[in-house]
């Protein structure tokens, strides 16, 4: 059985093979900020496309949206983010480095054997209680220095609009995509004539001024979310039933569409202390990352909190009028929200495999792999082989994510394609010129099969579908 990869192994592969690079690395980079490279950007797009198809395109009760990153600042006042969107922050008194208090305590607890500490659930602690624990046990910073008392730190980024100094207006860079959905609720309702229950989904960038912990793509200043706000009448549908239905869909998507082993997934209910200010109930779908279990995808019952808040602050009605009974209600909301970057990180972790010989390959589902097939000439210095390879490549390219590769010897090409997760490699050799047959190599087993050129597309489609 394959041993789970370490974080260093994942980050090394990601950089070496063009999945992910540290952003602006020539200037020393930026804390917890990454760029997706040539291979990673394709995989990232495939993940977003398959999510959109599953949860928007293939459903008649879902509508798409693409809202702005900068919203009227009153949006964030109404939503509660200006006052409540906080992390508990401590500072090293000597180095002035800042850390999340809950992370400091969790890491400290891992090395403690005292009986009275065994039952401490950090997620249940208030900021005040964290401070008391740090003081009582003299918990130090990673550098061994004293820490300040924890303070709640707002993680919304601020910026300014306007061109005249002194007359600029402060706005917030969105901390979640959800508020763009809530503020457009009436517009979507009126333009689509949607009936409850229905959902609005979008994929987009969000930004949080968080104290990060060096966990690669898991927690970044800038990240991409895929969020759904599913609106319903609580008198017609029980929220518990609706939440269970969505939890089932989320789990099914991760297992069947993304190819994740169910043993590496679990549900975890939020404690009252850690649950967000807008939520009555929250569950996380956790994944076993290289550093341990942590949140992949969250689902929250936001009640009618958001629409009510925006009604009160804007003065606009966000009520839904039932077309049959003419009853007016403020819809309630179930929200499944996932970080696309975390899906990407999970997929790399899950797919990372080594066979008995030590050969490394990514066991990606063909539907999400950056390339589904690679076409090689056996030798790049033989024009007839290159020409025939180009011909096969051009036949396949309109139907499959296909790449052409003639760099280095054939063994190095196989190695490269294995490590970026290409499931099928098609080699054109001298026998191809004689009998019009190619050799197709399967990634996981390295099994090779001879297939007629006119049947290659059919062969690939059959293998991908299976």
Task: Describe, in short, the structure shown.
By secondary structure, this protein is an alpha+beta fold. It is 33% helix and 26% strand. The chain has three domains: 7-82 and 157-352, Bira Bifunctional Protein, Domain 2 (BirA Bifunctional Protein, domain 2), CATH 3.30.930.10; 86-151, 2-Layer Sandwich (Herpes Virus-1); 371-465, Rossmann fold.
Derived structural class: alpha+beta
Gross geometry: globular
CATH class of the largest domain: Alpha Beta
The number of distinct β-strands equals: 23
CATH architecture of the largest domain: 2-Layer Sandwich
The neighbouring-strand order within the major sheet is: 3-9-10-16-13-12-11
Proportion of residues in extended strands: 25-35%
Helicity level: 25-40%
Mean pLDDT: 92
Supply the number of helical segments. Answer: 15
In CATH terms, the superfamily of the largest domain is Bira Bifunctional Protein, Domain 2
Provide the CATH topology of the largest domain. BirA Bifunctional Protein, domain 2
Task: Give the uncertain stretches in residue-range form.
Answer: none
Main pleated-sheet profile: 7 strands, mixed
In angstroms, what is the radius of gyration? 26 Å
Spatial gap, N to C terminus: 23 Å
Count of the separate structural domains: 3
């Amino acid at each position: 059985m394959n041993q789970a990869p370490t974080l260093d192994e994942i980050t090394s592969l990601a950089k070496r093979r063009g999945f992910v690079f540290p952003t602006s690395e020539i200037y020393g980079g930026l804390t917890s900020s990454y760029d997706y490279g040539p291979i990673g950007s394709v995989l990232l797009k495939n993940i977003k496309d398959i999510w959109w198809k599953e949860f928007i395109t293939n459903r008649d009760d879902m509508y798409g949206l693409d809202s702005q990153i900068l919203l009227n600042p009153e949006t964030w006042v109404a939503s509660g983010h200006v006052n409540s969107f906080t992390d508990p922050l401590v500072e090293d008194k000597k180095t002035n480095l800042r850390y999340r208090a809950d992370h400091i305590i969790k890491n400290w607890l891992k090395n403690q054997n005292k009986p009275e500490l065994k039952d401490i659930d950090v997620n249940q602690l208030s900021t005040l209680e964290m401070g008391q624990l740090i003081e009582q046990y003299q918990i130090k910073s990673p550098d061994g220095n004293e820490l300040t008392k924890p303070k709640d730190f707002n993680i919304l980024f601020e910026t300014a609009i306007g061109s005249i100094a002194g007359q600029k207006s402060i706005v917030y860079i969105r901390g979640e995509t959800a508020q763009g959905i809530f503020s457009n609720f009436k517009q979507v309702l009126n333009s689509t004539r949607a009936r409850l229950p229905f959902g609005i989904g979008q994929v987009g960038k969000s930004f949080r001024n968080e104290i990060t912990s060096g966990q690669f793509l898991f927690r970044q200043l800038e990240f991409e979310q895929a969020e759904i706000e599913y609106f319903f009448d609580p008198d017609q549908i029980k929220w518990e039933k609706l939440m269970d239905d969505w939890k089932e869909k989320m789990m099914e998507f991760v297992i069947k569409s993304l190819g994740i082993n169910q043993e590496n997934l679990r549900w975890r209910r939020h404690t009252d202390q850690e649950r967000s200010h807008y939520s009555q109930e929250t569950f996380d779908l956790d994944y076993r990352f290289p550093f341990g279990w942590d949140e992949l995808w969250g689902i929250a019952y936001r009640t009618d909190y958001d629409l009510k808040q925006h009604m009160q602050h804007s003065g606009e009605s966000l009520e839904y009028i039932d077309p049959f009974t003419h009853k007016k209600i403020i819809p309630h909301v179930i929200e499944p929200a996932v970080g696309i970057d975390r899906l990407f990180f999970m997929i790399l972790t899950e797919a990372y495999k080594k066979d008995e010989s030590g050969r490394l390959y990514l066991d990606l589902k063909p539907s999400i792999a950056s390339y589904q097939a690679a076409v090689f000439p056996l030798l790049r210095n033989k024009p007839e082989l290159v020409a025939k390879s180009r011909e096969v490549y051009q036949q396949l390219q309109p139907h499959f994510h296909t790449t052409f590769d003639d760099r280095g010897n054939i063994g190095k090409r196989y190695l490269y394609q294995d490590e970026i997760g290409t499931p099928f490699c098609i080699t054109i050799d001298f026998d191809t010129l004689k009998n019009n047959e190619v050799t197709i190599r399967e990634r996981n087993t390295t099994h090779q099969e001879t297939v007629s050129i006119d049947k290659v597309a059919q062969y690939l489609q059959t293998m991908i579908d299976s």
